[in-house]
């Protein structure tokens, strides 16, 4: 266990007075080097400073010699009663969690929840007394094993049970004014310094009378001890709070059963595992404990508080900006009218900045909630961090005790032009008249198609800053986890109330992080660069670059070889006094450095005119590559030689004259397969305004770098001059400080042996903003050497003026003598170097089953098709050809009536019992669902194989779940009319004579007792339409025995006259986009691939409906849509008129519709029925195509020309995209890897490409269904719901932006967006064509000769019957 750094810091950040002596009772401090970090991962001190430290308003000042702070913790004696809980139960509108133990329910939130530094749209409620941000694993994986691997808020976490029916778990979302007002009062009382508490949403979870799982009780089913408690989570626009309520009699037990032991329950907040510094590593995030392992601390939950009310606790648990820690409420005063019987004084000693408490002096006893202990002035939460303490870029003195020598800036003498006699790249050449080009020729062209090394990230959100409309870069930025790199603070930090801070040694955490420890070269050689050797040491292994190469061993580059850097720039930057931030979204950054003379060139693209001029002073934004590959003076090392290519840089820029501040976070992720260093950059803050047309000149400067293991710090002052368009000159300056963190190999001192202090000299600085091309350009010359004012080296190898080829290294001799030597992979005399084609000169260099690709200075080996790299990363082995046992029937799953077999790739499969059966999938048993209360009390339950039925008793009517007697149900007008007509039509007998009356009209009623819209009188041979009251609609009676086309009056009133309804507006001729938005369908005309936004308007209003899917039939010009409120599937003419409901029975939630205009078929998915159906376009001849292995089917599209169907299932446990023939044959999984929430699906018949929009991975991708070639189109989208293709463009609906977004599929980027006037979530989207695309299939002529359904497939068709029995139907197949 590490040591606790005692923190004292007042609200204005002034250090406390230093005591002249330490109290006798104070423990001896350990070495300051062991002081642990006290802030959360990913949070900067600058961000922390944005939130004022909350202190009791009456905190006394400290005495100069020995100050003891007495803070009166005033707790109200008015204990919390059960009636003080937020209203809960069925009468409050609560839902109830399924009874049992370890039950979980996902609750999708109406508003985002902020938790630590992440934002979440759903939570998981669990029986065991907690909510989580991700689906929790089995309870054996987290009970007694805290902190957990997933994010959770534990109100009272233990092995709890509600299966006896007495215990219950209720939950609901609530935005009512009364609830929000009460929440406001609790938060305001707990945080009196907060003056803007405006909760907008809350969800309430109540655990009522829950018992310990496994407690036997008295034998009558009643458990002795039961607990009741409540968790309320409230969210505002930028923060979330948790309120915990524990009634005085609510906690009757405090231990839980874990295995064969009884342990105290857990109360607190855990972030879970977070991403480590490398893509393959994770580390434990912070865990805030409210209670300890002491039972007394759990008992104190009902007796103490941090909010002014016993048993009521308030915590800030997350924000939308930088989040530093869980913040507990502050007890500032007694609630009005409350008794003051619980007041006690807490005594806090003054602490010397160089003193710390030992672990023994700050034991677990100190962590209890009892106020009879000694704390630092601001008690801290229990937060678990790795046991490392490293300098912080945000401390005022980030290396205490280090003296920085004053080094005079050397005078630099230039030959006319500081960049004369050099060669430069064409693309970074600024416009204008220059004597010589200020950029080298060899830099590659800018291209948006930069390929990055694939990175793997956990499901838990990484600690990044979340903003509206945020878009991820291609290689997501992971800000520095500052908990691993904090300084030894010269003054103690503040601590929150109640428990202590615990610092856990890294050895105590069983986490799979990158480490050299406990490994040997025999099984870890692949972790080294291919240009490095692996060496074993007593404690582990280290990688060392071979002669002719330099780096940290994991990344090695050839000496003298030019280096390139590519990446993305994101962020939010304010300019001047502007209240609006400028968003940076995936801007390309390219850099090139000539390693043998230290010249570096940087360019960032697509920078707007409002920001570009202001970025000119920040030459070091990309100049870090100058430090990494700086020209080395004798005995000194540039950055790459020390840290390699994987490190994190955090910098802060403070402008002196105007107090603006900008933070820069850069993560370097190593060298990719193209030998480019990959970096992601994030900017956040404010810049001084520089007007357009102004130029900036930066004076040469020096920067001192302080080196220690795993951390490098530097700071410097930069002067620059601004020449305004009117020739006015202004001189400004800023202070620059930065921290570079990395991981070195600890087992060999040779792996880390730079000077402790080095000086970077930067001169020949050139900056400009190219407004025409929207490029910001930087160029500079970099040298690394001694901090002392020594005579500069004159050897050309150290001055950079040697004339060697840019692909050569300069070897210094005596005096000014030197030689040029081509870098590895090149040949020549050093003055001129040529690339060696290793693939041509040594054909077998890559080995068997490979392809050799030559690259400048190197080569690359790739496995041929059908082979893949073995674990050594070099040998190509044959890919195992898997066997689909599910398809072949060679599996050992139970019979298809009880189980399903699911193919998982290779030769693997899993077995799962069908709904209504239990077991392991290999053996499944029927579940007897006929438990008490399953059916109505006046019905009998009959158990079936895999299901059950409910049947009302004799004399009752209903579906078995609701049963009523005939006397209870009042007959409808249609039923009364029918009875009356039947009675009048019945024959009568009078005095043995039979009398047959005149035939009477008998109305037809539907199953619900309403008038059918079409009524007929067979005796007269007439039919007519009626309204909802059974009244005939004039002009509809037919007299020739035919049936009129009557409108279903249950959907809309009858049409009067031939004109369209007022709320139906025919669209513009030509191609249009149609999209659904709640109760309406809107259209946007297209001009080529551009949306004519000004002509957008509503096509159809469908009040009180929720339209999900939209489809179009190009033959009859009909629009089809699905509605989930009724539910129903309907259609309407594109030219306006009366909507018609086609299907409204046996539907659950129809969410996708596909139209085959050739076969005149309609297909749809149902996510409640879990099936896919087909019918004719008028809704007749319904048939279920698939009802197995579907969990959440949503989008469906058709390929009429080839008789194919494609659909997506966004099942969170196994999302997939499937395809099949339209007759249901040849069903197969097309895509199942790397999917999240594939909501939208579209098929382009011209290119035969299937594309989808995934709201989980936030990507749009495409696949060729025939070759299975898969390609990513764009990345970093928001929350796509539906997508449609049109030519080279894709259009998708975005829930988060509530907009329609255009993607250029060829350019692979978003190009346009449309925001409807009425903002709400858009759903389905489709296109309308003036003419049908050409095509034909086997059912397009004469229904394929089928009597009912003609279902096409490749090479033929199948005639099938609807699910309803029809003796006239004939089923057969045709292969044509």
Average of per-residue pLDDT values = 76
Count of separate DSSP helical elements = 10
Rg for CA atoms = 37 Å
Overall geometry comes to globular
Largest sheet: 11 strands, mixed, barrel
Q: What is the count of β-strands?
A: 85
Q: Please identify the structural class as seen in this structure.
A: mainly beta
Largest sheet strand order: 25-26-27-37-36-33-34-35-29-30-31
Please estimate the helix content: under 10%
β-strand amount: 35-45%
Distance between the termini: 77 Å
- Low-confidence segments: 1-77, 216-222, 336-517, 1049-1065
Question: What report would you give on this structure?
Answer:
This protein has ten helices and 85 strands. The chain is mainly beta and 1376 residues long. The longest helix is centred in the first third of the chain and has 14 residues, at 177-190. The strands form 25 sheets. The chain has an eleven-stranded mixed barrel with strand order 25-26-27-37-36-33-34-35-29-30-31. Strands 2, 7, 8, 9, 10, 11, 18 and 19 form an eight-stranded antiparallel β-sheet that branches. Residues 517-557, 793-834, 835-877, 882-925, 926-962 form the EGF-like domain. One of its GO terms (molecular function) is calcium ion binding. Disulfide bonds join 1016-1023.
């Amino acid at each position: 266990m590490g040591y606790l750094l005692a923190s004292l810091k007042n609200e204005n950040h002034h250090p406390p007075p230093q005591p002249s002596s330490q109290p006798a009772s104070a423990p001896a401090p350990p070495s300051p080097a062991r002081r642990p970090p006290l802030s959360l991962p990913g949070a900067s001190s600058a961000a922390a400073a944005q939130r004022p430290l909350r202190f009791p308003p009456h905190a006394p000042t400290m005495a100069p010699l020995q100050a003891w702070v007495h803070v009166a913790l005033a707790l109200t004696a008015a204990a919390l009663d059960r009636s003080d809980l937020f209203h809960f139960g069925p009468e409050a509108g609560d839902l109830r969690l399924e009874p049992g133990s370890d039950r979980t329910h996902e609750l999708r939130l109406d508003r985002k929840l902020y938790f630590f530094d992440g934002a979440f749209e759903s939570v998981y409620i669990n029986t065991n007394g907690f909510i989580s941000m991700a689906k929790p694993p089995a309870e054996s994986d987290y009970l007694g094993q805290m902190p957990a691997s997933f994010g959770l808020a534990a109100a009272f976490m233990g092995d709890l049970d509600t299966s006896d029916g007495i215990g219950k778990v209720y939950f609901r979302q609530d935005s009512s004014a009364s609830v929000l007002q009460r929440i406001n009062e609790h938060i305001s009382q707990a945080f009196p310094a907060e003056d803007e508490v405006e909760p907008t949403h809350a969800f309430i979870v109540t655990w009522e009378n829950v018992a310990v799982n496994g407690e036997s009780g008295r034998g009558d089913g009643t458990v002795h001890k039961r607990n009741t408690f409540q968790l309320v989570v409230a969210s505002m626009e930028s923060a979330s709070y948790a309120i915990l309520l524990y009634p005085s009699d609510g906690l009757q037990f405090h231990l839980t059963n874990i295995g064969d032991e009884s342990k105290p329950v857990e109360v607190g907040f855990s972030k879970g595992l977070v991403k480590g510094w490398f893509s393959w590593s994770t580390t434990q995030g912070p865990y805030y404990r409210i209670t300890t392992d002491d039972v007394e601390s759990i008992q104190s939950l009902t007796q103490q508080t941090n909010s002014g009310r016993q048993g009521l606790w308030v915590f800030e648990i997350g924000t939308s900006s930088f989040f530093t820690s869980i913040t507990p409420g502050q007890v500032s005063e007694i609630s009005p009218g409350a008794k003051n019987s619980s007041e006690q004084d807490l005594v806090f000693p003054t602490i010397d900045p160089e003193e710390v408490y030992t672990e023994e002096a700050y034991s677990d006893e100190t962590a209890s909630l009892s106020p009879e202990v000694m704390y630092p002035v601001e008690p801290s939460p229990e937060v678990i961090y790795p046991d490392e303490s490293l300098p912080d870029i945000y401390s005022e003195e980030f290396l205490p005790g280090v003296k920085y020598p004053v080094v005079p800036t050397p005078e630099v003498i230039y030959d006319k032009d500081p960049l004369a006699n050099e060669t430069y790249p064409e693309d970074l050449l600024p416009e204008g008249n220059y004597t010589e080009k200020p950029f080298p020729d060899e830099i590659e062209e800018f291209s948006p198609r930069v390929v990055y090394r694939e990175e793997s990230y956990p499901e838990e959100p990484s600690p990044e800053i979340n903003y509206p409309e945020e878009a991820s870069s291609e290689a997501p930025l992971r800000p520095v986890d500052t908990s691993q790199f904090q300084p030894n603070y010269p003054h103690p930090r503040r601590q929150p109330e109640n428990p202590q801070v615990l610092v856990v040694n890294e050895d105590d955490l069983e986490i799979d992080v990158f480490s050299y420890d406990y490994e040997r070269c025999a099984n870890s050689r692949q972790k080294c660069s291919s240009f490095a050797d692996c060496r074993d040491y007593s404690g582990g292994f280290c990688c060392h670059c071979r002669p002719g190469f330099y780096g940290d061993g994991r990344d090695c580059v050839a000496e003298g070889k030019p280096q390139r850097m590519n990446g993305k720039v994101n962020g939010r930057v304010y300019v001047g006094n502007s209240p609006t931030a400028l968003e940076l979204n995936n801007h390309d950054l390219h850099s090139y450095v000539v390693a043998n003379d230290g010249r570096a060139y940087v360019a960032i693209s697509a920078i707007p005119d409002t920001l570009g001029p202001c970025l000119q002073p920040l030459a070091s934004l990309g100049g870090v590559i100058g430090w990494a590959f700086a020209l080395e003076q004798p005995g000194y090392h540039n950055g790459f030689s020390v840290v390699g290519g994987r490190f994190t840089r955090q910098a802060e820029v403070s402008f002196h004259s105007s107090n603006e501040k900008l933070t820069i976070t850069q993560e370097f992720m190593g060298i990719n397969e193209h030998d480019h260093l990959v970096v992601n950059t994030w900017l956040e803050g404010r810049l001084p305004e520089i007007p357009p047309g102004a130029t900036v000149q930066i004076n040469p400067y020096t920067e001192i770098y302080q080196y220690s293991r795993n951390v490098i710090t530097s700071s410097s002052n930069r002067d620059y001059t601004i020449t305004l368009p009117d020739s006015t000159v202004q001189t400004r300056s800023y202070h620059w400080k930065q921290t570079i963190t990395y991981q070195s190999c600890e087992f060999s001192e040779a792996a880390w042996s730079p000077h402790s202090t080095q000086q970077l000299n930067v001169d020949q600085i050139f900056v400009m903003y190219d407004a025409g091309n929207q490029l910001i350009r930087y160029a500079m010359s970099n040298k690394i050497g001694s901090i002392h004012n020594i005579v500069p080296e004159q050897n050309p190898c150290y001055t950079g003026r040697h004339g060697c080829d840019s692909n050569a290294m300069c070897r210094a001799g005596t005096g000014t003598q030197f030689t040029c030597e081509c870098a590895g992979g090149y040949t020549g005399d050093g003055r001129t170097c040529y690339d060696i084609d290793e693939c041509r000169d040594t054909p077998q260099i890559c080995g068997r089953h490979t392809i050799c690709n030559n690259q400048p200075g190197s080569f690359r080996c790739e496995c041929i098709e059908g082979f893949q790299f073995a674990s050594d990363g070099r040998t190509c082995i044959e890919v195992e050809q898997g066997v689909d046992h599910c398809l072949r029937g060679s599996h050992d799953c139970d019979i298809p009536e009880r189980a399903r077999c699911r193919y998982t790739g290779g030769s693997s499969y899993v077995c799962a019992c069908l709904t209504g059966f239990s077991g392991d999938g290999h053996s499944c048993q029927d579940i007897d669902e006929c438990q008490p209360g399953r059916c109505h009390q006046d019905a009998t339950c009959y158990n079936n194989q895999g299901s059950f039925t409910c049947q009302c008793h004799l004399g009752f009517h209903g579906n078995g779940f609701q049963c009523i007697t005939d006397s209870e149900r009042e007959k409808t007008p249609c039923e009364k009319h029918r009875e009356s007509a039947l009675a009048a039509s019945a024959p009568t007998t009078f005095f043995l004579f039979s009398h047959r009356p005149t035939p009477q009209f008998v109305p037809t009623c539907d199953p619900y007792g309403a008038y059918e819209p079409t009524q007929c009188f067979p005796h007269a041979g007439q039919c007519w339409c009626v309204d909802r009251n059974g009244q005939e609609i004039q002009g509809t009676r037919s007299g020739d025995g035919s049936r009129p086309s009557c409108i279903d009056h249950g959907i809309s009133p009858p049409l009067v006259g031939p004109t369209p309804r007022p709320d139906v507006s025919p669209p513009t001729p030509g191609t249009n986009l149609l999209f659904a938005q709640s109760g309406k369908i809107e259209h946007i005309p297209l001009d080529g691939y551009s949306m004519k936004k000004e002509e957008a308007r509503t096509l159809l209003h469908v009040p009180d409906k929720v339209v999900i899917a939209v489809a179009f039939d190009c033959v009859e010009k009909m629009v089809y849509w699905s509605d989930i409120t009724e539910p129903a599937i309907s259609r309407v003419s594109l030219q306006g008129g009366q909507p018609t409901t086609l299907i409204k029975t046996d539907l659950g939630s129809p969410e996708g519709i596909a139209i085959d205009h050739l076969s005149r078929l309609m297909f749809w998915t149902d996510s409640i029925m879990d099936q896919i159906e087909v019918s004719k376009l008028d809704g007749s001849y319904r048939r279920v195509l698939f009802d197995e292995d579907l969990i959440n089917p949503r989008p469906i599209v058709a390929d009429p020309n080839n008789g194919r169907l494609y659909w997506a299932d966004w099942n969170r446990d196994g999302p997939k995209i499937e395809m099949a023939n339209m007759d249901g044959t040849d069903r197969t999984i097309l895509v199942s890897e790397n999917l999240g929430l594939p909501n939208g699906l579209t098929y382009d018949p011209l290119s035969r490409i299937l594309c989808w929009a995934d709201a989980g991975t936030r990507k749009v991708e495409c696949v060729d269904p025939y070759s299975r070639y898969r390609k990513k189109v764009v990345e970093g989208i928001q929350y796509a719901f539906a997508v449609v293709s049109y030519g080279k463009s894709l259009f998708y609906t975005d829930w988060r932006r509530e907009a329609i977004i255009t993607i250029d599929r060829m350019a692979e980027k978003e190009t346009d967006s449309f925001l409807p006037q009425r903002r709400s979530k858009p759903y389905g989207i489709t296109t309308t064509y003036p003419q049908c695309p050409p095509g034909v299939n086997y059912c397009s002529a004469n229904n394929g000769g089928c009597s009912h359904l003609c279902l096409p497939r490749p090479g033929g068709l199948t005639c099938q019957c609807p699910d309803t029995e029809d003796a006239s139907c004939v089923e057969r197949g045709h292969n044509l």
